[in-house]
Design brief:
Shape: elongated
Number of domains: 2
Distance between the termini: 55 Å
CATH class of the largest domain: Alpha Beta
Structural class: alpha/beta
Strand order of the largest sheet: 3-2-1-4-5-7-8
Order of helices and strands: EHEHEEHEEHEEHHEHEEEEEEHE
Length: 297
């Protein structure tokens, strides 16, 4: 099938590669323009653009390029923009969406599923409509969330979605007979910096979900501390000489550094202080030389 492909981040790359490997003629790849993606002033190509160039495919950074080619369909995977109605009217599109629709329509379905404590999520192939993620389903696959981090879950869904996309395009029946989404819809709002802020008012379970997004942080005496790994601490009697402190304070013993929360303690394992390297929580506490009862927020 002669196709166009619209995508930008690393999560879209497996679908692009799968289409090429399955023998589809990907006539054009459209991705977001080159941007600064790290430190420094130099710009770099999106992961999809880099992959497309490596595959020898034509690449553009504007949707208007779609009007210059003749394709049967376009495939959209995390492109990063809404597709205008006029473009959809001209070119039918399939979308690989990382949730069990209609749950978590929107920009951050994986993060919102983790934060909500969902037991499972999945990926769906839908016909793209002007309205956000409302199109009928051509196929769907599910997976258990468990304790997976956001990056682990996204990588898994990206591979599942790529396989499912190839299956749909190979099946006249799946292409011709999608079914409407069923159930209560929820909106996956974009994550913001505050999404990753772990606070004492949270339960330990809620805090651990934020940590699994891999950008979690707390503030200890006004300084930001990234929390890279943590777990629920079940035994607070490791050191009888440690001060007995309540919610919103740090309890440090010879064996553990814990943040006291509404329903228990979050034990920090690996952290990264502002302007420093990744280290164990015990190494951070020893180096921080914090005296007395220390608050965190």
């Amino acid at each position: 099938m002669r196709l166009a492909f619209l995508g930008t981040p690393e999560a879209a790359v497996p679908s692009l590669r799968a289409l090429v490997a399955a023998g589809h003629d990907v006539a054009l790849v459209i991705s977001q323009p080159d941007r600064r993606r790290g430190r420094g002033s130099e710009t770099s190509a999106s992961p999809v653009k880099a992959a497309a160039l490596a595959l020898g495919l034509d690449v553009a950074d504007d949707l208007s390029a779609l009007g210059d080619i003749d394709v049967e369909r376009a495939v959209v995977v995390a492109y990063g923009e809404m597709i205008p109605a006029a473009v959809l009217a001209r070119t039918p599109m399939l979308n690989v969406h990382f949730s069990l629709l209609p749950r978590w329509r929107g920009a951050a379905p994986v993060e919102r599923a983790i934060l909500a404590g969902d037991e499972e999520t999945g990926v769906g192939i839908i016909s793209l409509e002007v309205t956000l993620d409302t199109g009928p389903l051509h196929a769907e696959a599910r997976t258990v969330i468990g304790d997976k981090t956001a990056s682990e879950l996204i990588a898994e869904l990206a591979e599942l979605g790529a396989q499912l996309l190839v299956e749909v395009l190979a099946s006249e029946d799946l292409l011709a007979h999608p079914w409407p989404q069923q159930g209560e819809s929820t909106y996956a709002a974009k994550v913001t910096p505050e999404t990753f802020h772990v606070t004492p008012a949270m339960t330990v379970a809620e805090a651990l979900r934020v940590v699994r997004l891999e950008r979690a942080f707390v503030k200890v005496q006004g300084r930001r501390l990234r929390v890279l790994r943590a777990h629920a601490h079940l035994d607070l009697d490791l050191d009888l000489d440690a001060p007995d402190v309540g919610t919103g304070f740090v309890r440090a013993t010879r064996e553990a550094v814990c943040l006291m929360m509404a329903d228990g303690a979050l034990e920090l394992t690996w952290v990264q202080p502002e302007g420093s390297r990744t280290m164990s929580a015990l190494a951070w506490w020893a180096g921080a030389r914090l005296d007395g009862v220390v608050a965190w927020d």
